[in-house]
């Protein structure tokens, strides 16, 4: 892992974010920064508010208080459909692809976020439209090659194994050329081997393409392997922020997962590779 620069302005800055559903404070005063080039992961037990944070960043929900800035720009007034054009792409917990289209077609559809030509230019297939189409094809083919999907290029999504569909979803997000990639539980439904492959893809996306990754994930082996920093949430609030190792040994986090700190060992033992300490102790909340 490369370790992101802490001196430049953050790519994403979340401050005092709140949203309530009826009596449930799904997100309750959450703040964090995501630095350019890092893999930043949200963890926490079911119902902690992680996906709601994603939905607030994607503008699917409106925050009741607080702010989200992306590249220094407030996202509060940005329409949900305009988010992708700003360079934010997303995958979903439950894969959302066009099942009866091929892998290539799914990627082309995803890429159309970049098409800004008017009706008449498209109708007459103007030189500008042709240039855009060529760039689209080029980019989509690049992504197919990058994620090793050549074999499935012309296959209908509906016929693909689940693990491949997860990679296609990732490909569709990459085809939009994001600066910030939101991954909602990339390992859900994957077996151990596929989860290992997913870890490689995430590392390659960050290291080779320079894309910043904000991820929600339950599998702590994947989290430890790819994350620079981890933010743990419970009941809508921030419990701890630090390296994967720091957060996993934080008593509040252990208690939130297991109910009692006495059962902590079972959280530490499985596949939890200790990470080199890169974040000062002070950043970990007590
Ligand atoms: N649209 C909604 N309407 C009502 N309640 C909601 C809505 N979205 C989320 N919630 C509630 O907000 C809380 C946080 O949910 P959220 O899905 O963000 O948790 P999570 O940490 O992503 O959980 P999981 O790991 O199970 O996906 C939960 O109590 C959930 O029931």
From TrEMBL:
<dbReference type="InterPro" id="IPR032823">
    <property type="entry name" value="BCA_ABC_TP_C"/>
</dbReference>
<keyword id="KW-0472">Membrane</keyword>
<dbReference type="GO" id="GO:0005524">
    <property type="term" value="F:ATP binding"/>
</dbReference>
<dbReference type="InterPro" id="IPR051120">
    <property type="entry name" value="ABC_AA/LPS_Transport"/>
</dbReference>
<dbReference type="Pfam" id="PF12399">
    <property type="entry name" value="BCA_ABC_TP_C"/>
</dbReference>
<dbReference type="Pfam" id="PF00005">
    <property type="entry name" value="ABC_tran"/>
</dbReference>
<dbReference type="GO" id="GO:0016887">
    <property type="term" value="F:ATP hydrolysis activity"/>
</dbReference>
<dbReference type="GO" id="GO:0005886">
    <property type="term" value="C:plasma membrane"/>
</dbReference>
<dbReference type="InterPro" id="IPR003439">
    <property type="entry name" value="ABC_transporter-like_ATP-bd"/>
</dbReference>
<keyword id="KW-0067">ATP-binding</keyword>
<dbReference type="InterPro" id="IPR003593">
    <property type="entry name" value="AAA+_ATPase"/>
</dbReference>
<feature type="domain" description="ABC transporter">
    <location>
        <begin position="12"/>
        <end position="260"/>
    </location>
</feature>
<protein>
    <submittedName>
        <fullName>ABC transporter</fullName>
    </submittedName>
</protein>
<dbReference type="InterPro" id="IPR027417">
    <property type="entry name" value="P-loop_NTPase"/>
</dbReference>
<keyword id="KW-0547">Nucleotide-binding</keyword>
<keyword id="KW-0813">Transport</keyword>
<keyword id="KW-1003">Cell membrane</keyword>
């Amino acid at each position: 892992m490369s370790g992101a620069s802490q001196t430049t302005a953050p790519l994403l800055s979340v401050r005092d974010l709140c949203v309530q559903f009826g009596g449930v404070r799904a997100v309750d005063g959450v703040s964090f920064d995501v630095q350019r080039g890092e893999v930043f992961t949200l963890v926490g037990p079911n119902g902690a508010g992680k996906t709601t944070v994603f939905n607030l960043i994607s503008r699917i929900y409106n925050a009741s208080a607080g702010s989200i800035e992306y590249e220094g720009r407030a996202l509060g007034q940005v329409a949900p459909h305009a988010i992708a054009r700003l360079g934010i792409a997303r995958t979903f917990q439950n894969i959302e692809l066009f099942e009866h289209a091929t892998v290539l077609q799914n990627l082309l559809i995803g890429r159309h976020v970049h098409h800004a030509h008017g009706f008449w230019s498209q109708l007459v297939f103007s030189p500008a439209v042709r240039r855009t189409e060529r760039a689209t094809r080029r980019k989509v083919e690049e992504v197919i090659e990058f994620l090793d999907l050549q074999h499935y290029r012309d296959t209908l999504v509906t016929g693909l194994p689940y693990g491949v569909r997860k990679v296609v979803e990732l490909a569709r997000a990459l085809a939009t050329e994001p600066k910030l990639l939101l991954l909602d539980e990339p390992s859900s439904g994957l077996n151990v081997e596929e989860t290992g492959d997913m870890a490689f893809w995430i590392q390659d996306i960050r290291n080779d393409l320079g894309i910043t990754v904000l991820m929600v994930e339950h599998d702590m082996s994947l989290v430890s392997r790819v994350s620079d920093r981890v933010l743990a949430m419970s009941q809508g609030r921030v419990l701890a922020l630090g390296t994967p190792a720091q957060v996993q040994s934080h008593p509040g986090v252990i208690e939130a997962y297991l109910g009692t700190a006495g059962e902590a060992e079972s959280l530490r033992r499985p596949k939890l590779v200790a990470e080199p300490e890169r974040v000062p102790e002070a950043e970990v909340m007590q």
